[in-house]
Amino acid sequence: MNTSLKSSDAERRNVAVVTGGGTGIGLACARHFAAMGWRVIALGMDREDADAPGVEFSKLDITDEVAVQQAVQGLDGIDALVNAAGLIRHEGREWGSEGFRQVLEVNLVGTQLVTMACKDGLAKRQGAVVNFASMFSWFGSRNNPSYAASKGAVVALTRSHAMAFADLGIRVNAVAPGWIDTRLASGAIHNPDRAPGILARIPAKRWGTADEVAEVVGFLSTAPSRYVTGALLPVDGGFHIG
Predict the structure, then answer these.
(1) What's the Rg (C-alpha) of the chain?
(2) Which one from 147, 165, 179, 239 is the annotated catalytic residue?
(3) Integer Cα distance of 67 and 169 in angstroms
(4) Which of 194, 206, 227, 235 ranks highest by number of CB atoms within 10 Å?
(5) Which pairs from 42-51 meet CB under 8 Å and 24+ separation?
(6) Which of these, 15, 148, 158, lies nearest to 77 by C-alpha position?
(7) Do the Cβ atoms of 81 and 118 come closer than 8 Å?
(8) Average pLDDT per run of 10 along the chain, which is 242 residues long?
(9) What single string gives the DSSP state of each residue in the chain?
(10) Angle CA(77)–CA(79)–CA(81) in degrees, nearest 5?
(11) CA-closest candidate to residue 68, choices 3, 133, 130
């Protein structure tokens, strides 16, 4: 892992740190910032695309507090932190104590650890944090109790951080993606038995894309949303009201 992410060659460029930035929606967010000319530090365990222009990827377990601190210590300032890393366990594994704890550690504790490690850098540039909640922040889940619980808790954490860091000039918001066509949701989206029922409940009548979520994250990370903090913004085609 690269532990010397010096920014001397790009001190005046905006800097984004994206956890889960090697896959799915996190990767879409990383690419979105890179397309805007930002320096992008993507952190995570997996990487789908080894050739993402402008994205610097480092392998990182966000539940390892020491490793998290080392990963960002060389950055002179942070304009945006996107906590997109997430974990879900299928086949009933979240009902067991080990699976339940694993999901909470990544989705909730990891979000806390990364945010605290980046807080000083964010304060230097009066940056913004965007956390990843979920449509399950509203609903319970028959099969994934830890995922649903963790995403509900991310909403409360977002609001707590928004209040606590406001005096530092740091804004903290969250997005709640719905059925987005990524690897995480592929088991349902590409299941002919499940997909029609899900689509019938989405007012927009289609699946979302990772790029559509990334555009909302970009909005919440930049000046047009400068008076928005503590908000939860669904990106789900209306699923939560369907």
Answers:
(1) 17
(2) 147
(3) 26
(4) 235
(5) 42/18, 43/17, 43/18, 43/19, 43/71, 43/85, 43/114, 44/19, 44/20, 44/85, 45/85, 46/22, 47/22, 47/23, 48/22, 48/23, 48/24, 48/183, 49/22
(6) 15
(7) yes
(8) 48 91 97 98 91 93 98 96 96 96 98 98 98 94 95 98 98 97 86 93 96 98 98 96 84
(9) -------GGGTTS-EEEEETTTSHHHHHHHHHHHHTT-EEEEEES--S-S--TTEEEEE--TT-HHHHHHHHTT-S--SEEEE-------TTGGGSHHHHHHHHIIIIIHHHHHHHHHHHHHHHHT-EEEEE--GGGTS--SS-HHHHHHHHHHHHHHHHHHHHHGGGT-EEEEEEE-SBSSGGGHHHHT-TTTHHHHHHH-TT-S-B-HHHHHHHHHHHTSGGGTT--S-EEEESTTGGG-
(10) 105
(11) 3
pTM value > 0.85 = yes
For tokens 């994205």, the residue is: 55
Active site residue 147: yes
Q: Are 89 and 137 in contact (CB under 8 A)?
A: no
For residue 190, count other CB atoms closer than 10 A to its CB. 10
Q: Measured between alpha carbons, how far is 46 from 21 in angstroms, rounded to an integer?
A: 9
